[in-house]
Structure formats: C-alpha cells, structure tokens
C-alpha cells in the first residue's frame, strides 16, 4: 500500500531534473510538501502529443460518480489493474508517472505503528507508476521487494528514469515496468511518528531517528 508520500521539489525543479517542460504552467497550484496525503494535487507526467510527455496536475484518489464508497481509491494492484472495471480503461490509455521524494510506510510492532521513509540512495525522485481519469489518479502497487517486505508486503511500482517513456507510451512495456523497482538502489529508515498526521509538514518528516 502507498498512502503517504513526500514531494519537496518545486515544479520548476522537477522540470529541470526530468528535462521536461511541456505543460509546466499547469502546475502553478501544486504545492511542495514533506507529508502529502491523498486528495492532494500531484505534479504528474502523462503522454502528450506526437509521443511527447507533458506535466499535468492530478488529484490523488479516484472516486467515479457510480462508486458507493465515500472514500476514494488511492492505490491499484498492478497484478489486476488490467482486469478491474474501475481501472482497466485508464491502464490501457491513461497512465501517469508521479515523481516523489519518498514514500512512507508503517511497520506494526509491539510499540504500535512505526513509520519508515523509503527513498532512493541518490536522493533523486522516486518515479511512481500510476493511472488517471477525470483529473484524478491512483498509484500502482506491487509485492514488496525482499529487503522491504518486513515493513509492509506491498510497495509502489517505481521505475528508473529510462522507463518513463516506455511506461507512458507502450502498453507492453507498462506491464514489464512492474518489476523495474528491483533495479533501484533504495534506502529505508524509521522516522518520527508525527508523520502520521498530515498536518505535520516539516523537514523532520524525512529525518531518520533511532528505532
């Protein structure tokens, strides 16, 4: 599961890092944050015209008008994303990539839930696979890597930068990207329990603590 991320790079910084500027003006109202909850606007990459890539703001969480639950879906399992009616059309033609500084996951232990921060060792953004419809998006999840499974049995589908274009523009490559996170050099460490509140939004969210 992925229910909280961090994104501290501004849209301009993301555009420079990714080398993509098309659509950048649409991100004027996207806010950077150390503790990003669902329903927030996320700077996202989608397929553009003539096999290009552009930026768009997407709200994290999908809730179609026919959905009875009041809670939006924030994740979709990659194993079944092409089968579920809610997601299969979006996966076929409306895939997105969401840059994130890190994501948070909670380890259930004898003292309660301990949040962990997971990010790249290079401090470059994680590139999370997602899909979208009607200005809303979900993040795809997969079985956790062996080194992360002790925290949680699921993790976001993440990819190296060279996978962005294949994932967005080629359906066969999108399926292949589900294991791309295996090649990433990821680090993980416990962080303050205050991350549990989305109102807590300071650099301390990303700072390691003694477990």
Describe this structure in words.
The chain is mostly beta strands and 211 residues long. The chain has helices at residues 11-18, 88-93, 164-169, 171-176; strands at 5-7, 33-36, 41-47, 53-60, 75-77, 95-100, 102-109, 112-120, 126-133, 136-143, 154-156, 186-190. It has a 5-stranded antiparallel beta sheet, with no helix packed on it. Strands 3-4-10-9-6 form a 5-stranded mixed beta barrel. It is globular.
Count of helical stretches: 4
Assembly state of the chains shown: single chain
- Give the fraction of residues assigned to helices: 10-25%
Order of helices and strands: EHEEEEHEEEEEEHHE
**Measured on Cα atoms, how large is the radius of gyration?**
16 Å
Principal-axes shape call: globular
Short account of what is shown:
The chain has 211 residues and is mainly β.
Describe the structure using short key phrases:
211 residues; mainly beta; 5-stranded antiparallel sheet; 12 strands; 34% strand; globular
List the helices and strands and how they pair.
Blueprint: E1 5-7, H1 11-18, E2 33-36, E3 41-47, E4 53-60, E5 75-77, H2 88-93, E6 95-100, E7 102-109, E8 112-120, E9 126-133, E10 136-143, E11 154-156, H3 164-169, H4 171-176, E12 186-190
């Amino acid at each position: 599961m992925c229910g909280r991320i961090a994104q501290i790079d501004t849209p301009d910084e993301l555009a420079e890092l990714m080398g993509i500027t098309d659509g950048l003006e649409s991100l004027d109202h996207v806010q950077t944050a150390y503790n990003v909850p669902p329903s927030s606007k996320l700077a996202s990459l989608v397929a553009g015209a003539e096999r290009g890539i552009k930026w768009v703001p997407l709200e994290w969480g999908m809730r179609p008008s026919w959905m009875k639950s009041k809670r939006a879906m924030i994740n979709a399992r990659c194993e079944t994303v092409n089968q579920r009616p809610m997601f299969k059309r979006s996966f076929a033609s409306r895939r997105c990539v969401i840059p994130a500084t890190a994501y948070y996951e909670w380890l259930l232990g004898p003292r309660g839930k301990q949040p962990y921060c997971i990010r790249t060792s290079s401090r470059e953004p994680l590139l999370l696979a997602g899909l979208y419809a009607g200005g809303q998006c979900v993040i795809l999840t997969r079985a956790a890597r062996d080194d992360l499974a002790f925290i949680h049995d699921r993790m976001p589908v993440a990819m190296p930068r060279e996978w962005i274009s294949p994932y967005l523009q080629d359906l066969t490559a999108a399926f292949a990207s589900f294991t791309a996170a295996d090649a990433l050099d990821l680090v993980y460490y416990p962080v303050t329990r205050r991350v549990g509140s989305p109102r807590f939004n300071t650099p301390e969210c990303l700072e390691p603590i003694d477990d």
